[in-house]
Amino acid sequence: MRSISRTALLIGTLVVVPAAATAAKGLRAKAEGAGLFIGTAVRFYHRPADTGVLMSPFRDDPVYTARIAKEFNIVTPENVMKMGSLHPSRDSYNFADADSLVDFADQHGIVVRGHVLVWHQQTGDWLTDGAFSKAELQEILEEHVAAVAGHFAGRLFAWDVVNEAIDDNTFKLRKTIWLKSGKDYIERAFRAARAADPDAVLCYNDYNHAASLSWQRQKSDAVYKLVKKLVKKKVPIDCVGFQLHTAPEIFDPAGIAENFRRYADLGLQVHITELDVSLETPSTPATRKKQGAIYKTVMDLCLGAPNCTAFVTWGFTDRYSWIPEFQPGRGDALILDSDYRKKPAYKKLSKSLKKAAQAVAEAATP
Ligand code: G3I
Prior knowledge:
- It is a single chain.
- This protein is an alpha/beta fold.
- The protein is 42% helix and 15% strand.
- It has helices at residues 6-12, 19-23, 27-33, 57-60, 62-71, 83-86, 96-107, 125-128, 134-151, 185-196, 217-232, 256-265, 285-303, 323-326, 344-364; strands at 37-42, 74-77, 111-118, 158-163, 201-206, 239-242, 245-246, 269-277, 279-280, 308-313, 330-331.
- An eight-stranded parallel beta barrel has the order 1-2-3-4-5-6-8-10, surrounded by six helices. A two-stranded antiparallel ribbon has the order 9-11.
- The longest helix has 21 residues, at 344-364.
- It is globular, with a radius of gyration of 19 Å.
- Bound molecules: ligand G3I.
- Residues 45, 47, 54, 78-79, 121-122, 163, 243, 274, 322 line the site of ligand G3I.
- Ligand G3I binds next to loops.
């Protein structure tokens, strides 16, 4: 099922989601009415700043998983489907964590975005330290994609097949270990993924390429050029992912609608894949209000684009976010606060989704 539009999703997927799911309240009930997947990255390992003791939100925090089941109909594993997690050595795989997420999703009528088959980060030391030849790297890439996409075949809605392949400065292919396997590695990755899982929506995912008329325009055009070439070569690609890690200081919607449209013209879906809006911490009512406006703008841009089928934030509660660890002094980036209370961003999303669902219902009423 690689439908391009939300209408097709309404007919083909969301409406037939098990009754338990459609009975659920929260954002997902409204999103399903609008034919949209709304979701979050799911975190398995977290080291709280105050205790420093590693814990698992997914396994140890029942409020976390209950809220996911209530609010969302799509999830992405934040880390446990990356190469370093799944493929710890050349001849061993460990699917335990990833399988438990897919099982949880199945139980709650939630679909899964696989993240990520081919990325230059979190690959595992055995790969980066292995001094492999070009031919060996080609073999490893195709083996990994076939094994992982094959393991989950038929169970995932979509895959981020290749992530962040465009360099931020040269706007050409990033010089990564995968490029050492040949400049056609992206094509090989997509072909291997389609062969292993014919039903999954196959996506190219990147960051800072949404706003095609702002400071992002060079990268935006470089990604579009790459994707257009893949489509021309009949490479099996179905979707483009927009990470949208942003902040009030840098967010600029200029050209996002047109960018989504040019991918629709190529016959591709667009997914919002990793949205978060980081604030200086501690945040204030004023900065959280600004944050809410940005979440609303992105949601309305997605709802306004028939080929925008998924809206995923990179986490959903400030209690568990990657940002404070990677960007000291910043955080509070998500739609619920660290006590799972609704922030302005949540309320803005809820309002936009409700309006969209009402419009769909009215259009369907004879
Ligand atoms: O698995 C180890 C664990 O064994 C160890 O005890 C623990 C020590 O803190 O570290 C764990 O690995 C960490 C991993 O997350 C899993 O928690 C890594 O150190 C840490 O670097 C890694 O960070 C992730 C980062 O990708 C890696 O680049 C973040 O959580 C994750 O949010 C972030 O997500 C990326 C997307 O995949 C791609 N787009 C950008 C986005 C943000 O960087």
